[in-house]
Structure formats: C-alpha cells, structure tokens
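Working notes for the structural subgroup meeting. M.R. asked for a predicted model of this chain before we commit to crystallization trials. I am recording the input and output together here so anyone reviewing the notebook later can reproduce the run.

Input as submitted:
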Amino acid sequence: MNSTRTVSLPTIGFLLWLMLSVLPVYADTDAIPAYIQNELPDARLSGQGTFRWFGLKIYDAALWVPKTGYQPDAPTSAKFILDLGYARNLYGERIAQSSIEEIRQLGFGTASQQALWLEKMKTVFPDVHAGNYIGGVYLPAQGARFYLDGKLLGEIDDPEFARAFFAIWLDTRTSAAKLRSQLLATKP
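Returned structure, recorded in token form:
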C-alpha cells in the first residue's frame, strides 16, 4: 500500500524557522577559539571589522567580551579579548612600532614609559604571516596577555600599558573610528 503524507505549509515554515534559529547558536559556539573559551568562559562576540591601510586589508578584528559586554564608561573594569587575524605578512617589530605610535598619538604614558612599552612589545610580538592570529587579553588591574594562533606568547604586566594598548582600538579618540564602531556593535 503506497500512501502519500502531506505536510502543511505552516508546518514546513515552523520547521524551517526552528532550523534557522537553532543553527546559528551552534555556529557561534563552535567559532570561539579554544584559548578565548579558556580565558573568558562566558565569551560572546561584541563585534568585528576589518582594518585597512590605504585600501590594503591588514587584518580582521574581533572583540570578545563577557556576558556583561564592554563598558565604554568603565573600559578597564572587565576582562576582554581582541583577536586580530592578519591578511598579510608583517614584522613583529613593525607591529610594536605602529602600536607605540598610536599610543603616543592618544597621549598615553610618558616618553620613558613608551620606550619601555616598545621594548616589551618587541620581545612579545612575533613576525606574522597571512592567516596568523594574534589575540590580546585585557587583564584588569594587571596587564595584558598575548597569544599567537592560540598559543601563549607572553604577558606584559603593566596595567597602564594594557589600558594604552587596547585604547588603540577602543578609545573614542582612536584613528580607526570605523573599526571601533564595528567592534562595539553589540547586538542584544
């Protein structure tokens, strides 16, 4: 006996809605790199964007925050992670130099602090190749911890450095205002 079962259009619509609403939750969870899950167990993506220099793509950036989100009025109150996926090869020394130039433009630190921070960054930041990721973990009242492709690079134990370093992307005076807006584009 051959019988055909008909499924109503509302039933198909409901099943499609159910599939589409559940799948992104799993996709988002799977997309969180392991080191981010270890550092920030309740991590959620605040926003992401691309940094370009004279039209050339330099890196993609993603800001991972705790459940409470990033607090612009108290940016140093909670741990967060900035993950940069590089689109081209760059020397670690050049990354450090560009970082200190941005910190200097933002007005953080004295000349001697900036010199010390530059030397510390040169020892921590490796040369990167297209496809590498450097993740920076903001550690409140402590400093910053850095990873390359999920493997620990090192720490800079200086809360003033950490505030200055992450201000490159998150301060209202950043030279990358569009990227800042994308990183802070938290969706409820």
